[in-house]
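User:
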Amino acid sequence: MSEEPIGRLGPIVGRAGKVSVTLTDLSYRETSKGRRFPYGEFGPDFIAALHGALAGPRRKGLVRSTLVCPGCESSLEGIAVGPLGVTTEVALTRIPPVRVDLEMPGMTCPDCRRSLVMIGDRAVASDLSDALIDAFKSAGMAPG
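Assistant: Predicted structure:
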């Protein structure tokens, strides 16, 4: 298999449900069939790295579990969930880092001011995946 030239894209935008994502400096391969992911396992690698880079509230307690901040352990009970903007960088070993700007459901810890997204919510996680797919499609990128 010959190596195709690697290019960089961005910003590219995708939306789904309550999630909006903007990807900047996204690597891709230019092939005779168009733009392709930079390598075969890119999709699952990117999703796993992005989920790992996002901070979300966690549950504490067995019988009466409550939401707490993973940073300072403050209770988040009663804190409203709403649209929250966060920026992170996804670093994968096989390509340069990708900047990811998100707007998705989340909250800010009242004590340490940490931005926490509701990535543990299945519907939000699904919307994030669908928003990424929308972004890839908007740039004409496909697996393969």
